[in-house]
């Protein structure tokens, strides 16, 4: 899976939006293949070179471009892709193995000082997360035990991610860049089963009663 | 089959050295061949607690560097003949320990002893990691207070990742030894309760050692409490812990406050 950027003219406005995204989740593009769909810029080919420089300045390296005439692509442009999807289907037909399920299961406690980072999906812990320990997940976090440390869900811009725990004693909860420290968590929820999720720009921490 | 036991905690001052000496003496009195090793290079204490400080000639670092043979550095206890001490060097620091050197010493000790008990220094740096690296079993010494419990949690994480067993994908046996437990203070909520500590650390309990002046006195006269006062409450608790370490199943006694107001006054007047 690659991220697809669809730049639009005027380029400055579009880059401004991109910067805002990077500001919110600095690791959003880290280590991920990025493809640019340049169909919206096809009419103004002189913008393309400037776009590549602007992306490189932000640490984003394109692994391919699409939606543009081959004649426009210059020497220093990434390879031209066309219909990545059909190629992917071709591969899928040849190799019917189902995709790896995206999830990390830990069946022992996460101890103080340990940091579990899994950007590929949900993290499930059968056990407790100690004070001073940290779970970072691209998806949701499920803790069948006491959460005493930090839980950072939705890393990489997944605002739909949630944090669930059987007993809430957390030091910090964060979802998609929004966070709450222990002081801002309703005292009545401490020690109770609870979940945290985003409602718009607000984090909601609620019990299950 | 020799067993390498590391006594560790992360936090300092919780009773690692006292517990090493007491457990070592208890196992030796049960007829086991025991050696206690001080890994606190530069800040050695185990020799004092064992009452052998005037008999140290060669130490662990001398053996590692090849300046002395192991048999020259081992000090046999004068009270229990199966109890031995391998002291640390006071004039060096932890950088003098090497993974390879420690491994050779432990391998040689395995041939002669039933129990090799490694007294870890506080912290999570070199000395502590060397002490735990070769262990088959860990005794995690914890006081019933939050800072000690969190440090123990950290150490348990390291035991599961930074030991030879963990690197081979095996699990190291971990036991909790709760020390300086004061039943009165636990009842008044001034200390964590036993079940709270167990819930946080989730490893099996080896024993509960009550806070006692006997323990302090034993350290100061250089005799492990299991030798100086085997019938005291802490002495009995350490004997039970040593039996559990050998695989026996015993009922766990949670110390309770027995002394009433009158006996407290009386006790104070006599003292």
Notes on the structure:
The complex is a heterodimer of chains A (209) and B (271). With 209 residues, chain A is of the alpha/beta class. Chain A folds into 2 domains: 3-91, Alpha-Beta Plaits, CATH 3.30.70; 103-207, Pectate Lyase C-like (3 Solenoid), CATH 2.160.20. Helix content of chain A is 18%, strand content 31%. Chain A has helices spanning 11-24, 46-57, 84-94; strands spanning 3-5, 34-37, 62-66, 103-106, 115-118, 122-125, 134-137, 141-147, 150-153, 163-168, 172-175, 178-181, 194-199, 202-207. In chain A, the strands form 3 sheets. A 6-stranded mixed β-sheet of chain A has the order 4-6-8-10-13-14, with no helix packed on it. A 5-stranded mixed β-sheet of chain A has the order 5-7-9-11-12, with no helix packed on it. A 3-stranded parallel β-sheet of chain A has the order 1-2-3, covered by helices on one side. In chain A, a hairpin with a 2-residue loop joins strand 13 and strand 14 (202-207). Mean pLDDT of chain A is 82; it is low at 84-94. By secondary structure, chain B is an alpha/beta fold. The longest helix of chain B is centred in the first third of the chain and has 14 residues, at 16-29. Chain B is globular and about 55 Å long. The model of chain B is unreliable at 267-271 (pLDDT under 50). The A-B interface holds A 108-114, 127-128, 130-133, 146, 148 and B 124, 150-151, 153-154, 156-158, 160, 199-200, 202.
Question: What attributes does this structure have?
Answer:
heterodimer; A: 209 residues; alpha/beta; Alpha-Beta Plaits; Pectate Lyase C-like; 2 domains; six-stranded mixed β-sheet; five-stranded mixed β-sheet; 3 helices; 14 strands; 18% helix; elongated; B: 271 residues; eight-stranded mixed β-sheet; 14 helices; 8 strands; disordered C terminus
């Amino acid at each position: 899976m690659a991220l697809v950027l669809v730049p639009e003219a005027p380029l400055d406005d579009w880059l401004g939006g991109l910067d805002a995204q990077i500001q919110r989740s600095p690791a959003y593009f880290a280590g991920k293949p990025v493809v640019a769909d340049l169909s919206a810029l096809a009419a103004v080919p002189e913008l393309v070179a400037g776009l590549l420089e602007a992306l490189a300045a932000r640490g984003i390296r394109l692994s391919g471009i699409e939606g543009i005439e081959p004649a426009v692509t210059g020497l220093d442009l990434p390879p031209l892709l066309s219909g990545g999807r059909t190629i992917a289907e071709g591969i899928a037909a040849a190799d019917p193995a189902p995709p790896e399920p995206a999830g990390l299961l830990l069946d022992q406690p996460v101890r103080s000082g340990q940091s579990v980072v899994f950007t590929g999906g949900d993290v499930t812990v059968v056990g407790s997360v100690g004070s001073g320990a940290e779970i970072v997940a691209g998806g949701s976090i499920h803790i069948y035990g006491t959460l005493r440390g930090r839980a950072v869900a939705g890393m990489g811009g997944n605002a739909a991610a949630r944090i669930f725990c059987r007993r809430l004693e957390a030091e910090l909860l964060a979802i998609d860049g929004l966070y709450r420290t222990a002081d801002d968590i309703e005292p009545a929820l401490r020690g109770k089963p609870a979940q945290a999720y985003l409602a718009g720009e607000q984090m909601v921490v609620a019990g299950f009663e | 089959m020799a067993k390498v036991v590391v006594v560790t905690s992360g936090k300092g001052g919780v009773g690692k050295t006292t517990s090493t000496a007491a457990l070592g003496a208890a196992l030796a009195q049960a007829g086991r061949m025991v050696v206690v090793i001080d890994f606190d290079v530069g800040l050695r204490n185990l020799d004092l607690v064992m009452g052998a400080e005037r008999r140290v000639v060669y130490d662990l670092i001398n053996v590692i560097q090849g300046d002395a043979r192991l048999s020259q550095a081992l000090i046999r206890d004068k009270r229990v003949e199966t109890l031995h001490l391998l002291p640390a060097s006071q004039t060096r620091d932890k950088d003098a320990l090497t993974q390879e050197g420690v491994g050779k010493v432990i391998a040689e000790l395995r041939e002669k002893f039933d129990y090799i008990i490694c007294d870890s220094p506080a912290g999570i740096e070199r000395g502590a990691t060397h002490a735990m690296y070769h262990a088959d079993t860990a005794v995690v010494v914890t006081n019933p207070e939050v800072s000690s419990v969190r440090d123990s949690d950290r150490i348990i994480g390291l035991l599961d990742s930074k030991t030879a067993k963990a690197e081979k994908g095996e699990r190291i046996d971990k036991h909790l030894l709760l020390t300086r437990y004061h039943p009165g203070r636990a009842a008044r909520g001034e200390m964590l309760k036993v079940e709270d500590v167990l819930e946080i650390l989730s490893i099996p309990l080896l024993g509960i050692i009550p806070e006692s002046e006997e323990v302090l006195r034993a350290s100061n006269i250089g005799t492990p409490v299991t030798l100086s006062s085997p019938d005291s409450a802490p002495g009995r608790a350490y004997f039970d812990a040593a039996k559990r370490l050998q695989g026996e199943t015993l009922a766990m006694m949670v110390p309770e406050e027995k002394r009433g107001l009158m006996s407290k006054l009386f006790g104070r007047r006599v003292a």
